[in-house]
Specification:
This is DUF2189 domain-containing protein. The protein is mainly alpha-helical. It has helices spanning 23-37, 39-62, 69-78, 80-83, 85-95, 102-106, 113-142, 150-159, 161-185, 188-194, 199-212, 214-233, 239-257; strands at residues 3-9, 12-17, 258-261. It has a three-stranded antiparallel sheet. Helix 10 packs across helix 11 (199-212). It is globular, with a radius of gyration of 20 Å.
């Protein structure tokens, strides 16, 4: 397992490891161990995205815009890493063999809160761009100024050449934006949560980590997408377990790839 060193400040550096392409199974396995050890608190975390998803679906139903559920769910996935901060705290405490209480979850020890917020803003910006592009794409494809009712939207999307083109192009654009968000945040958020690192450097480290471990990181992203997709079939209820599990797994992904930091700060 070779390493790549990155300077993150004066007399401070970190090393990014290269792992085997199947390393994502190890992260998922360790994440499951953490979930079993902290399942009561994990379930509390998992309830948050479920309730948020239900609120979004109810809002779309109330506005008669259910056809936009796939786009909203994709956008919701972009900001998921920010909601997983509690998972990182639980995994870190479990790893350090610290006593885990409700206060551990409610008051996570974020080393660089301002930098985490900056990365969260970047993810929200990507989400806004995706929402605007989805709206523009629908307007161009349908020549409609206002969103159509759910049934009309579904019929247009699946039964007309313009609608099918919109679905294909929209899926490609959404996938590209989701991949961008994943690459810049998958390591950056747990890194700024755990260490004193500025947001720009953390996002650069995340990009380097993904590029040096394309096999493992693509496989990890595929597993995340499949598990979240399965949760949609359950009406989002599956997220109660899957969301904290993936949060724990992401923490172990970070801990495996970022192997060393030269700094005097305490862990």
């Amino acid at each position: 397992m070779d390493q790549y060193e990155i300077q993150i400040g004066e007399n401070r550096s970190l090393t990014v490891a290269r792992v085997m392409p199947d390393a994502h199974w190890h992260w998922l396995a360790k994440g499951w161990v953490d979930f079993k050890a902290t399942w009561r608190f994990g379930l509390l975390i998992g309830i948050v995205p479920v309730l948020s998803a239900w609120v979004m679906v109810f809002g779309l139903w109330y506005l008669d815009m259910l056809g936009f559920i796939p786009a909203v769910c994709g956008g919701f996935a972009l900001v998921g890493p920010i909601l997983a901060l509690g998972c990182y705290q639980l995994s870190r405490s479990h790893e350090a063999r610290e006593a885990i209480e409700l206060n551990t979850l409610l008051k996570p020890r974020i080393i660089s809160p301002g930098q985490v917020s900056i990365i969260g803003f970047v993810l929200m910006l990507i989400l806004v761009i995706w929402a605007r592009l989805a709206s523009l794409l629908y307007a161009l494809a349908s020549s409609a100024r206002q969103p159509a009712p759910a049934i009309d939207f579904i019929n247009f999307a699946l039964q007309t050449p313009e609608g099918l083109t919109m679905v294909v192009v929209g899926t490609l654009i959404g996938a590209a934006l989701a991949a961008m968000a994943y690459v810049v945040s998958v390591i950056a958020i747990p890194l700024t949560f755990d260490r004193q690192v500025d947001a720009l450097t953390a996002m650069l480290v995340s990009v380097v980590a993904v590029l040096r471990n394309k096999g493992a990181m693509i496989s990890f992203a595929f597993n995340i997408a499949m598990l979240v997709g399965l949760c949609l079939i359950t009406g989002f209820i599956g997220l109660i377990i899957v969301f904290p599990w993936l949060g724990y797994a992401t923490w172990h992904c970070y801990r495996t790839l970022i192997t060393h930091i030269d700094t005097s700060e305490s862990h």
